[in-house]
């Protein structure tokens, strides 16, 4: 990972921090944004530190050779250990894979490590010895001090846990209707916030119900008043909503609260001023705001949101109703996926939607260059447009086993590819059940710049 881990670092981005380090920004890290990088959990204190052996590593950049590099392992370790500014060392083989020369050299690093990566126990990997604070605390006094700290910490934690248990029990006994961390709002409060669900407050309507704009606690919100098709009772609905609310990602609309009273079930979301993507995309005056750069950014943002739902979240959620009307835009035209938990609440009772056949037919006839919107033809990158069309057709193939994983889709959109397979005929009717999780072959990709060799459809 070059400098810090981000979503374009490796084919399927997996960001992990080394032992002795922690995320610099825990909130962003949890949400899938790793650009802030990592920091040491405990700073180095002079030379009173130890070294942790990390096997199967790629040697970081910006190393220095000690003594021309021709040193034994013991000499290399001694040299780094006595220099308090040395943060890591490796007795690494710098020879190429086909070379028979012994190019084992002593490499040391000073300052921050750049381009550190785990490549596995294979040819070309080395053992990196990383300096960490406190690994060689041999002083008996220090060991005793640490033991006292551990005992005190355990006692303190036990007291805190007991207090929390008592408070939870007391809250349950005194206020049994408020045993939730998630905010549950009364129907009366929501009715006031939306002027008794006035038609003038309606900002959208879909298969799951109408959406109203409201003002709740001084904050603008979007209130979805669900239709009464849900088979769930109040308790099941609340439990499901609590699970969905724990999904946090920059490309998902945030669920702020809910209400369940009698037959009424309502969800409260953050309000996004630019509304849904279709409101801009299909408006002749507003669609000029969507140049190709913005559209491509929206496409990649939606893909990252789906990757989180499919693979990276604590729940495995298949959207089942993803369309431009369920992609909302914030003030900076960044996309946020909405209605991603409705399939869990309502089940598979929505009408199956026809997929437009135009794109497939034009692909099959070799006329894909006619597909881009005329308003962006003079400014778009045709290679990027064709790449998006190609990936989209792969994602709607009739056989689910032929569809790519979202991790591969994200990587291809971010890095481009010249080796995509030709898509098969799309599935014009969605037939998978709610519980079905798509399993697709990874797209064969390269890390070339964004170019595309057009493949004729079969």
TrEMBL record:
Domain of life: Eukaryota
Domain (Protein kinase) ranges: 197-458
Database matches in Gene3D superfamilies: Phosphorylase Kinase, domain 1, Transferase(Phosphotransferase) domain 1
Apple domain ranges (all copies): 47-132
Residue ranges of the TM segments: 150-169
Pfam family, one: PAN_2
InterPro entries: Kinase-like_dom_sf, Pan_app, Prot_kinase_dom, Protein_kinase_ATP_BS, Ser-Thr/Tyr_kinase_cat_dom, Ser/Thr_kinase_AS
GO molecular function annotations of the record: ATP binding; protein serine/threonine kinase activity
Keywords of the record: ATP-binding, Disulfide bond, Glycoprotein, Kinase, Membrane, Nucleotide-binding, Serine/threonine-protein kinase, Signal, Transferase, Transmembrane, Transmembrane helix
Catalytic activity, as annotated: L-threonyl-[protein] + ATP = O-phospho-L-threonyl-[protein] + ADP + H(+); L-seryl-[protein] + ATP = O-phospho-L-seryl-[protein] + ADP + H(+)
Amino-acid positions noted as binding ATP in the UniProt annotation, renumbered to this chain: 224
Top enzyme category: transferase
EC number: 2.7.11.1
Family of this protein: Belongs to the protein kinase superfamily.
Listed name of the protein: non-specific serine/threonine protein kinase
Source organism of the structure: Triticum aestivum
Upper taxonomic lineage: Eukaryota, Viridiplantae, Streptophyta, Embryophyta, Tracheophyta
């Amino acid at each position: 990972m070059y400098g810090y881990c981000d979503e374009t670092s490796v084919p399927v981005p997996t960001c992990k921090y080394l032992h002795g380090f922690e995320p610099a920004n825990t909130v962003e890290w949890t949400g899938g944004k790793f650009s802030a990088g990592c920091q040491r959990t405990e700073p180095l204190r002079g030379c009173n530190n130890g070294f942790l052996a990390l096997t199967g590593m790629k040697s970081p950049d910006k190393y220095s050779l000690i003594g021309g590099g021709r040193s034994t392992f013991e000499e290399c370790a001694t040299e780094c250990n006595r220099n308090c500014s040395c943060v890591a060392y490796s007795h690494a083989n710098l020879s190429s894979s086909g070379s028979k020369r012994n190019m084992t050299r002593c490499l040391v690093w000073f300052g921050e490590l750049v381009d550190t990566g785990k490549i596995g126990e294979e040819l070309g990997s080395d053992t990196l010895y990383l300096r960490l604070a406190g690994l060689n605390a041999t002083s008996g006094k220090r060991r005793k001090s640490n033991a006292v700290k551990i005992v005190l910490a355990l006692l303190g934690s036990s007291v805190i846990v007991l207090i929390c248990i008592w408070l939870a029990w007391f809250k349950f006994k005194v206020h049994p209707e408020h045993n939730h961390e998630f905010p549950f709002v009364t129907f009366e409060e929501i009715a006031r916030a939306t002027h008794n669900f006035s038609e003038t407050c309606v900002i959208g309507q879909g298969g799951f119900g109408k959406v109203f704009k409201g003002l709740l606690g001084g904050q603008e919100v979007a209130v979805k008043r669900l239709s009464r098709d849900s088979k769930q009772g109040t308790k099941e609905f609340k439990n499901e909503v609590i699970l969905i609310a724990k999904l946090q990602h920059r490309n998902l609309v945030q669920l702020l609260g809910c209400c369940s009273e009698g037959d009424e079930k309502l969800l409260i979301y953050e309000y996004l001023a630019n509304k849904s993507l279709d409101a801009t995309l299909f408006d002749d005056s507003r669609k000029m705001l969507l140049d190709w750069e913005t559209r491509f950014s929206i496409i990649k943002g939606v893909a990252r949101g789906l990757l989180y739902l499919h693979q990276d979240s604590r729940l495995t959620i298949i959207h089942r109703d993803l369309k431009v009307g369920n992609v909302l835009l914030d003030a900076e035209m960044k996309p946020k996926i909405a209605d991603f938990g409705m399939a869990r609440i309502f089940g598979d009772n929505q009408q199956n939607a026809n997929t437009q056949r135009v794109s497939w037919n034009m692909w099959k006839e070799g006329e894909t260059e006619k597909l881009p919107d005329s308003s962006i033809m003079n400014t778009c990158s045709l290679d990027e447009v064709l790449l998006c069309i190609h990936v989209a057709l792969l994602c709607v193939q009739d056989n689910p086993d032929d569809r790519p994983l979202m991790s591969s889709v994200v990587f291809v959109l971010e890095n481009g590819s010249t080796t995509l397979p030709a898509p098969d005929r799309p599935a014009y009717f969605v037939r998978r059940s709610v519980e079905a999780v798509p399993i697709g072959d990874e797209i064969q990709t390269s890390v070339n710049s964004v170019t595309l060799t057009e493949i004729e459809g079969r």
